Amino acid sequence: MRTDTPQAVRLADYRPFPFTIETTRLVFDLHPSQTRVKAELAVRRTGAKDEPLVLNGERLKLVSVAVDGEGLSANQYVVDAERLTIPDLPDQFVLTTEVEIDPSANKALMGLYMSGGRFCTQCEAEGFRTITYFPDRPDVLSRYSVRIEAGREFTHLLSNGNLVGSGALEDNRFFAEWEDPFPKPCYLFALVAGHLDVLADKFLTMSGREVALRVFVDPGQASRAAYALDSLKRAMKWDEEAFGREYDLDLFMIVAVRDFNFGAMENKGLNIFNSSLLLADPETATDLDYERIEAVVAHEYFHNWTGNRITCRDWFQLCLKEGFTVFRDQSFSADQRGATVQRIKDVRALRARQFAEDAGPLAHPVRPSSYMKIDNFYTATIYEKGSEIIRMLKTILGAEAFRKGSDLYFERHDGQATTVEAFIECFAEASGRDLSDFFGWYEQAGTPAVTIETAYDADAQAVTLTLTQSTAPTPGQPDKKPLPIPIAIGLLSETGAVLRDTEVVLLDRNTLTVRWDNVASEPVLSALRGFSAPVNLSTDARPAERYVLFGSDPDLFNRWEAGQTLARDLILARAAGAPDEVGEERYADALGRALVDDAAEPAFKALLLALPSEPDLALMSEPADPPALHEARNALRTRVAVHLGDLLRRLHGEMQSDAEFSASAEAAGRRALRNACAEVLCSDPHADNLERLTAHFNTGRNMTDAMGGLFPLVTIGGPARDLALSKFHRAWRNEPLVLDKWFAVQGRDPNEDALDRVIALTKHEDFEPTNPNRLRALVSTFANFNPARFHDPSGAGYRFLADQILAVDGFNPMTAARLVEPLGNWRRYKPELGKLMREQLERVAAHPDLSKNVLELATKALG
Ligand code: TRP
Ligand code: ZN
Q1: Are residues 179 and 64 in the same domain?
Q2: Within this chain, do residues 436 and 501 fall inside the same structural domain, yes or no?
Q3: Would you say residue 111 lies in a domain?
Q4: What are 323-337's pLDDT values in tens digits?
Q5: Is residue 274 within 8 Å of 257, Cβ to Cβ?
Q6: Which residue range is the domain that position 129 belongs to?
Q7: pLDDT of 793-841, one tens digit each?
Q8: What are residue 159's DSSP bridge partners?
Q9: Which atom in ligand 1 lies closest to the alpha carbon of residue 124?
Q10: Is the CB–ligand 1 distance for residue 618 below 6 Å?
Q11: pLDDT of residue 607 exceeding 60
């Protein structure tokens, strides 16, 4: 809580720690409210003689300190709320500390805490300092051995590495001893003690070693971990093939916990997962859950090399592990599920979250140069834009040179805590290219705007492309320089034939002119194919040209993009009071043709059918008026529902399968298309459609179908909504993960009374604000995905969110801080709305004992 003015941490101030911690021995005597932690650190001085040893430590009750076995008296050290300082130390010594902590009172879910009766830890980024006194920074690597003592009510006592001993103790207690042979920073430390069921398997690595795999879950839930385990094995194999990376311990464990601040954590050999990203069966999980489980299991596993074996020198280098690891998990998902569909989904997420961040007061470079609370920098920019940068690197260098570069990185920096510069240097060396301009992508915030103008000379049969780039100022960066932007471009004829295959043009200055000869006819430009760079592209294309792309671009990403752009322009025109009725009919016709194309897969058609989201539309219109955008989007959707009604009903029927459930991408694609049809049809709720949607919901034999029916019924509102919601609640009231979906679907309810209902739901007996999943299901879903109701002209939506931020900040600052963002972009909204948003931000910022986390974001947003 706020005690003094928070200080910013700066990249420029980096200094190595003046000691190494060769080994770390930890002994945990676990009791819910009084846990004892004894730490024995073998320390060696590496810096100047007179440097004191300064260890981080917060909320610790210090019991004793000793150097080489000699207890220190109170005048031989200084302890305050944030650190333990010991002057006058020899060059080499063993430091022993003992502290007491209270895991049962820890609702911040950082450090050692309790979830569902079990002990678990979350140390990244700076949670270890609430467990024991230690240099809590990623560049201090140490070899750990851990002893855990606990009561027999637990079945498993787990930590990193290998189990080297266990046995009985007095008082019905027992212990386990763990050793991790790989030096690691303390943020990768983990401990779990609980009554757990286990799903076991094994994996044979490429060099023939057998690795034991264990997934630990609540008693009775083991079968629900099967998909996660299967994903893990596929990820292990994929990393051997795609990056030459083999797993290094004999044991790999994953534990599911219900109370968790983020998605999952890559602790060495002992990943800890939010149960929503681990447990799945067809009855309780949707295809989207399956997809995310596969991706996150892979993501955390891939961290074993990108993050753990090679870690970050300091937290400014966070994208070194996160950007690269997201790129690796996205590449894995593309290989598992199909590249086009995966790319479209990744780009949708990038635009919705990262482009929005980059366009507002919280914009920051992928490698920031200062922060107050590192927790606030686990952002879409670090993760998603960080991944886009690696993707561009691969596009620019080519697959082969890219692999050479990553091989060199793994070889050269194994066992180190390193920097983004060192990483890029490996690719420069391996490819023989100068990447100094490319590094600008890490240092410059903001989304570049790229324009392309096309001029065709029929006599010369030549086309001239004029490409320009510019980036608007962001906080602290008024002047932007040009970046090297790879733009994949192809040309079609006006009838949709290929005139010229894809070529990557590197736009590395403000303006670049490219001339292509032998272009037989007036071309239609297909630019930024596959979304080859994270930029906003505008071209001089007319609707007629977009329809050519929508109908026939061989680059399926751009085919989808053309449809989105057409729909977006129609919605924006309508929201501005100038609807283009003829254009809307034309769009619906073209969409209908795309939906009957036998060559396209259902998953792709489902994406074609989804109109641009309301948050995306808000980002495209300035100033944004979310209720007007909502109405305009609905109007276009209704037109599609009426115009294509027969086709949509036919597809809705055809996509229903009576075969047994399959989690395959193909089967999921059919369910996705069926649900997309349902979502459009609910805009035209005559008796026929209503009956169809009710049947969809009532007869759904899996959660994907059930949710695919539920949201349309909620959208229709009235008795259809109430009946479906109460039926769903009755069926699932004892399944926390499904109950989260029940809250979330009401968070997205577009009806006029939704805000009142959401506020009432915070009083519901099943609403648990201390559980981040439940809190986000209702509050974040409402604030982020229901713009029409969140931006209620009365400001009541903003007041509601501010109330929630302040309430949650009292016990979980990290989660509270993540609720600030929807108020952050207040400048982009209609002045009447922006003013009300600002007032609530001011109210939050003025609160007397705000956490550093929320204070930093609220202040920057007001800035
Ligand atoms: N490193 C984790 C990942 O991206 C995420 C993470 C960072 C996290 N800090 C956390 C998870 C705090 C939970 C709590 O894979
Ligand atoms: Zn990660």
Answers
A1: yes
A2: no
A3: yes
A4: 999 999 999 999 999
A5: yes
A6: 9-195
A7: 999 999 999 999 999 999 999 999 999 999 999 999 999 999 999 999 9
A8: 191
A9: 9
A10: no
A11: yes
